[in-house]
Structure formats: structure tokens, C-alpha cells
């Protein structure tokens, strides 16, 4: 037959060169549009964005700050709803210094977090999308904020550890915080990970001790809940639930995977306790051959773990309301596991070996001595510590390649590998090449500063099995540096890459990797890379785009028959010493300060 059109999956392009520009840079044959910026209207009645005249009432109707995960669910041939996380705020970059009171900043900050649901429609150029600006025609638009009530599901819902004075039932939680990455489910809902939730809690007095179990670490310490004297937010000054002395259980109500149904704007979002509580980067669902829903999730902390959940019930593929309602309950019961990686020795020249998923609990039974099911799920890190999983270098996105059935995990970096954390075959790099600017010489530094992409192959291709094999698909960094590895591909033909964070797939099974931290590791802006996972070009990493100065690249999402690439430059201008008055970036160049925004890239017409 005739060759198909050029798409994101098959395009041959010249790799974008490392740079420090304050711009989105793409290959020549591609273009991009900004779909929505921080402060743009999401709900009817939202006032025009005015950074000097912000109120809580305005922010509740406007697009939040620091867009991270982007999910897109079609609602017709030419329309879709886009679900976007707002991970965190940055007072120094967002607002004119001294313009707002400390208490106003706390309140504005709370509401700029959360999740937005935004209706989009096709643009003129195939693959392009724009937001629906007439909000009377966007009834699915939604802002989920710090006051939206979430229903707790699963075995730990209603547990004593979740009870507070506002919610003596321990089953309804106000708000979601630090939503980082996520996943769109086969039933058209969106999962979102509550990541660094610990930072919002504080107290004027002494931080109490957290619960502990049979010799385990103090749970507050294990989750990084402590006195944050350097954090400028001080939410505990305006809302008692962020005060650790007044509401010691409130932090237990964050650190979960939340599920939002963007097709039903009035539906109550949920937090699924069955998926465990840790610094969830995100969560991704795959339906195993036997119909069970399998969810992979990383705990983004130095030395923390990779987790898997297998549902008790089976997925119903029918396109009926009844089937969808059944599927929406799949994440409420099943079994939670944590990963252990064993190497087969480095004599073969590659980091690879076998792996095992260790059971933590099912919805009925705990497999961790001294901890109940509720405790395993609420203090998952403490439970996992007891069963000997492998300490990884900050697990970020964990995503299944539907073309080859393998699971890929981004392990972003760990400067303490080789010191605090001893090396092992799955975490082999203790010294790596770095640069201070794109053209500066390579210097070796201690630790793993550029990260890995790990490939896991479930035994018999069965995601419900407890055994797998694994290999490091990429050891990231500068290809001129000896420790790097690009699945065996010719290192003279690949792009340098540092700090993989978010993963996505096109329909040919190419992996798309976005980065967060390239400036620190290799001296250039972050961006997005395409790499084949099979065939003669397996491992050929090519830089597809760079994001503006100081930004990390979030999203990404390749969709619409590989014609649309959604990506979300987060925290443009976040560079040491930069402020609102003296910004390091003014992207997207509509104001004299930066505004995090969601974009779509597509082939030029
Ligand atoms: Fe929010 Fe792990 O990145
Ligand atoms: Ca080996
Ligand atoms: Ca991330
Ligand atoms: Ca990140």
C-alpha cells in the first residue's frame, strides 16, 4: 500500500541541539500552540488573569500553577477533555514581592494547587488543539481544589489513622495536593499521584512523633513530615488542618492515588487506599490477559521503591454505563506488591537480572508481620521496609508499552548512590559525567546524577505474575561519558539525556521521555526525547524538543493517531536567585513574568 502520513511515531527529524534558550524548540517540520496558561479561565465567571489582583474566588475558577500530568479523554470526534495536575506553587516567582500579605499568599497558594478539567477542540492544522473559550459550551470543565471533597475507598477508608476533627469518619478528605504524574485508565478516568505532600504540614511548636510499628522508623520522619522553618507557605497559620499538633492525622489523608472522572463533572473524586500511601509519582493501569487491572506506581524519593497492584475483580470491556461503573471500582480491592531486583552479575557487560514482586497485603490479609491491612496501606513505606525490596534511584513514571508488553520505569537520579546507598546491579552508577553548560567539558561527579530507564519483562508476558526479568534500557547522561548506555546502540548517534521523569508511548511502541534536571546534570534545558524500544534503532535516543529556561517538561502525551503531542512546561524560570521582579524566563512571552502552560505540538501544515 501507499506510505501513510508522517506522524510523531515515524517522522525522521534532526535532533534538537542542547541549548539554554527561553523558548520551546522543535524540529523544523513541527510547530506548537499554547493551549492554556496559568490563570486562564476554566469556569464561567472567571475574571481575566491579573497577577496584582488575585483573589481566592478568582483562583478557584482559573487554571492553576505548575501544570504536570496531562490526560486527554475524547468526548466526540472533534472535542476532548484535558485533565491537568497542578503540582505546586512558588511564591517567589508567581507574585510581585511584598504585594500580598503572608496570609493571602497561603490562601492563594492552596487554591492554585489541585486539578483542572478543560474542554478542548481541534484546531485548523491536523493534530493541533485549542481550548474552548466560550465556557458556556464547556460544561465538563472543572477545578478540583483544596476544598473539593474526596471519598476514601478500599480497606483503609474509615481507619482511625485517617480520622480528624473535620472528618471523624476518616472517609472524606478535603483536597488533593502535589499532584505530579498520573495515568488515564482504560475506562476513561484519570489517576493522579499525590507526591511531596509532606511539605504543606508544619507547626509553631514541636512536631509530634508519627505512628510507628514494631521497631520501624517514626512514620513522620520516614515520610519527610517535619518542621519546615524554611518553607514560605505557612498554611498552618491560616488552616488548622495543616498544623501537625492540632491535626496529627491530616498528613495521613495525603500521599494517595486519586481518581477523577472527567466525563462526569459532578462526580465525587476518590482516593484509593488499596494502592498504598507514599510519594506517588503517578500510576498507570494495564489490563492483564486474565482481565485483572494491574497498576504500576513509583515512590519518588532517593532509595525508595517500585510498587504494583493487581485487582481482585476483572475488567469489563463492554462500553456500557454498567461496565464503566464496575471498572471504576477495580482499584478498591486486590493485592499490593513491592519490587526486588536481583542481578546476574556485571561480567556480561549489562545491568540485568531477575525480579520478584513481594506481597505486602491484600484487601483482607496483611503479609507484613506486626502491621494490619490498614497500617500496611497507610504506612506503606514502613511496611515495605520490612520485606527487603530494592532501594531505587527515585522511581518516577512506571508505564507499560502496549506494543511489546514490557514495563518501563524512569529512575531520575540519586546523587547519594555509592555513598548513603550502596550500588547494586540495578543501581550501578556511582560516578558520572556532568557539564555546567552545553559546551563545557565533561567532569566526573559522584553518584547517579543522570538517571536510568529500567525495562521489566513480566514472566510469560503476564502482568499478574510475581516474577519478571529486567535490564537497564538506558543509563542516561552524555554519550561521551563512559558509564552511559543506550540499549547497545551506537553512542555517537544519540542525544545526551539527563534525569528522565515522565514516560509516554506512541502507537508504534516508541518511548517518549521527558526530563527534569538536565540543567544540573548536563548544563542545558530539559526536554523531550523519542527512542525506539525494538528493531535496529532500539536505544537511538533523539531529542525532539527543549522546554524554556528553568522549566521541566511535563505531560507528555502522544495521541490522536500520533498526530498530537501534548506537553506541559512546568516552572519556567525556576533558577536559583530568580524572582518575579527579576525573572529568568518570561515564557510564553505574554507577560513580563513566566506562566506555566500546556502546549500541543503537531506537524506543520
Ligand atoms: Fe513531581 Fe517525581 O516528580
Ligand atoms: Ca548482568
Ligand atoms: Ca514528575
Ligand atoms: Ca518533576
UniProtKB/TrEMBL annotation:
Please give the residue ranges the record annotates as the region Disordered: 418-447
Q: Which residues form the signal peptide?
A: none
Q: Which InterPro entries match?
A: PhoX, TAT_signal
Per UniProt, the ranges with Polar residues bias are 428-437
SUPFAM superfamilies with a match to the protein in the record: Calcium-dependent phosphotriesterase (SSF63829)
Q: Which PANTHER family match?
A: DUF839 DOMAIN-CONTAINING PROTEIN (PTHR35399:SF2), SLR8030 PROTEIN (PTHR35399)
Provide the protein name: PhoX family phosphatase
Organism whose genome encodes this protein: Nocardioides antri
